[in-house]
Amino acid sequence: MTSFLVFIILVLVGIAVWQLTKIFDLTQIGGIAEDSEIANDKDNSVNGYLMFAFVGFIYVFTIYSLYAWGDLVLGTPASEHGTDYDNLMYISLAIIFFVQTITQFLLHYFAFKYRGKEGQKALYFADNNKLEAIWTIIPVIVLAGLIMYGLYTWNNIMFVDEEDKQDAIVIELYAKQFGWEARYAGDDKTLGKANVRLIEGVNTLGVDLADPAAQDDKVVTELHLPVGKKVIFKMRSQDVLHSAYMPHFRVQMNCVPGMITQFAFTPTVTTADMRADQAIMAKVDKINKIRTEKSKKLVAEGSTALDPYTFDYLLLCNKICGASHYNMQMKIVVDTPEDFKAWLAEKPTLAQQWKEANAPAPAASEVAPTSVDSTKVVAQVIK
Amino acid sequence: MSHDHGHHKETFITKYIFSLDHKMIAKQYLISGLLMGIVGVVLSLFFRMQIAWPEESFEVFKIFLGDNFAPDGVMRNDIYLALVTIHGTIMVFFVLTAGLSGTFSNLLIPLQIGARDMASGFMNMLSFWLFFVSCIIMICSLFVESGPASAGWTIYPPLSALPQAIPGSGLGMTLWLASMAIFIASSLMGSLNYVVTVINMRTKGMTMTRLPLTVWAFFVTAIIGIVSFPVLFSAALLLIFDRSFGTSFFLSDIFIQGEVLHYQGGSPVLFEHLFWFLGHPEVYIVLLPALGITSEIIATNARKPIFGYRAMIASILAIAFLSTIVWGHHMFVSGMNPFLGSVFTFTTLLIAIPSAVKAFNYITTLWKGNLQMNPAMLFSIGLVSTFISGGLTGIILGDSTLDINVHDTYFVVAHFHLVMGISALYGFFAGVYHWFPKMFGRMMNKNLGYVHFWVTAICAYGVFFPMHFIGMAGLPRRYYTNSAFPLFDELADVNVLITVFAIVGAAFQIVFFWNFFYSIFYGKKASQNPWKSNTLEWTTPVEHIHGNWPGEIPEVHRWPYDYSKPGHDEDFVPQVVPMKDGEEQLHH
Known about the structure:
The structure holds 2 protein chains of 2 kinds. Chain A is α+β, with helices and mostly antiparallel strands. Chain A contains 11 helices and 10 strands. Among the domains of chain A are: 40-80 and 103-117, no CATH class; 167-274 and 306-352 and 374-382, Sandwich (Immunoglobulin-like). Helices cover 48% and strands 14% of the residues of chain A. In chain A, the strands form 2 sheets. In chain A, strands 3-2-1-5-8 form a 5-stranded mixed sheet, with no helix packed on it. Chain B has a single domain, classed as Up-down Bundle (Cytochrome C Oxidase, Chain A), CATH 1.20.210.10. Chain B is 62% helix and 1% strand. Chain B has helices at 12-17, 22-52, 59-64, 66-69, 77-113, 121-141, 171-200, 213-244, 268-302, 309-323, 338-350, 352-366, 375-392, 394-397, 400-406, 410-440, 446-472, 492-522, and strands at 255-256, 259-260. The longest helix of chain B has 37 residues, at 77-113. The relative contact order of chain B is 0.10. Chains A and B meet through α1, α2, α3, α4 and β7 of A and α5, β1, β2, α9 and α10 of B.
């Protein structure tokens, strides 16, 4: 089937080339015979008009794209700095759009307007300091504005004030091929020390359980955040580079083996509220329509149908990290502070989990007669 | 270099294979670059097919990727990453660095400055053959059983250092590093040669401010290469040490596949710094020659002086200088100090100024011209168009704040493909159409050239413009399939459209290849100066001779852009024409 399609495409391409050269050939009638590989007036004219048509193509394609794909972009930002981010983005996009529209027009219009004609002479115009000063200074002013606005926002996002630190909660994001875990620092707001050399059994993060700060740490595989509270993320990776990407919050930071990186932000919209957002609801509807169509096909082929989609915040890996890079994700839930507290309270601390797993339980000998090799357990978890 | 050239007997081997003649070496670079280009583009079609129709079985995969890489015609997920990696490496280094610079620097520097050959013909030959060896090694790596290098063209460790992390980091990565090390040696030899030749071997009257902008671009590009390529070499060397000899330059605290590795104290961020110290200037190593070629072609075909010659040189120099202090904009979210991010945002956005000057100067050069729409001219105008479209989004990516959410998404893919990929490729095509008569003594078919340009122009926008939208939708690049996230289901149609444009665009490159190879043998015979150009290369005879000019090297009396100068009958005044009495001299 594919080879047939490829064959058809090749034939069509061949016909297209043949026809197009024909068109250009027809414009040659009356041209000079001897040096016909050099553009003559007819070529200049045809290609000049095509240049003008091309700027039309750029405009139409841009408008079509905005119309057809404008709603694909991420909707309402779900974090405090996300609003500043989006404002800066819209201003930059507006400037880009404006400059693009004008310069592309001038370029292609001049290419059309001044297309060559026999006997026409170009203007000998080699320099003009005033003009060049103008188009040096205008970009300087515009960029100075963008740089200052950008750096102001950057500093606000990246540097956490001391007083904010007092009130914030601290969470470690832990990346490995190909999954995420999160560790809550607990009431002491201090994460226990950790090193990959301490990874053993249920202690998949290599937390130093002798560290007093580690006693109330909790490790989970689904990230919950309280709305309206600053969260300071400390990122770690156990094997290769990963990147913690949370597009709805306008957040991204690499996870680097051997060092701890940081990103802090305040979520502002709970998952429940976001699901009720107009734009998000429209998006979910659209996606579910696509999924129903696909499911019909799948069911007809004898496979199982796709689950319907409900909106959730996501953490994605956004730095190439290995074969299954494309499927390294974690669900993020933004709760009300009460729900968050209740959810976290239910989770056992790592110290408790460790104690349970390593308790000299008599039942262990019934299930597994030989002792469990801890590295194998870890390997299982990693897979 | 004064002993007589053109009189010694040449055999087939000294003429066509181990040639010392810069014109033959240029052609060798051109043909190798084009062949590598075919490989690079075909690989990209394969992974585009996988993205558009994820995990479907294709006959072509069975044939070209085989049972190992594509069991039952379905591409393996790590092979997807391998194809992405090798596509990037081949296009950036082998096609747009060696293919573009190697071809046109070699061809044009001696011809346009009035020299008999490069400063060192032997080193020039060595440079090409090292490049050829690195091509062979890179192609061989495609046939390694565990797969070619798969860590992305940026080969960030630890992924690139640990075969446990991805199979491609085994023998495939070793070959990649070997190939690149040889490639860098080749590139350095070429660059040193270009710099020395431009400084020392200009003919009488050819002052620096009478050099064509092509030569300025090649000259500055070579300097950037000399400054930055050795840093990549050191990075590659340290990575080889980490991989093979157990050092820990880039690796620390790693636990993989159930065991702790011994590495301690290294930093992957250090590698990123070393890599991008070349990696960013590399963008300009690719782009500046294309801009130089465009300057020359636009002026010649507009029959007008290039507008703001000195400003063009100043912006080339400014871009070159700034390009070496902006590498950190690839690392805003790498975990480096946010204060550094501020510095790099500042320097990065500054590059927009000389770039804007160049774009406006090109547009002004067209104004009130008498534009000869040869295929080379179309590609040059196309270059300015994609350079603007792609360059403008750099304002977003160069801004550390905005980079946070579009970093490593398809927005980046759209940006750099337009601004350096397509633009440089257009410069390459423009150069081939324009100097084909100089290289082969024959003309390429212009109608095929027109078809080639218009279809390519539409497809290039068709492929890369929609990527901005899926990037802003948060779609990460280098994903084998997007089906793991229901969120991205609505992007599937856009991805199909992109792939269709890519396939059509690539198919039409066959028109170019046909035109190119057919015209070498059967094209119409070229006249000595078909485009009525001012520069020195068109004063050489159509038939190539060793030493370029049969008699004395011509003397230069004026700058290269006296087109349509009042007081002259013709609309061009070659550089060899002496000044008339009382004629105003623009550049000395």
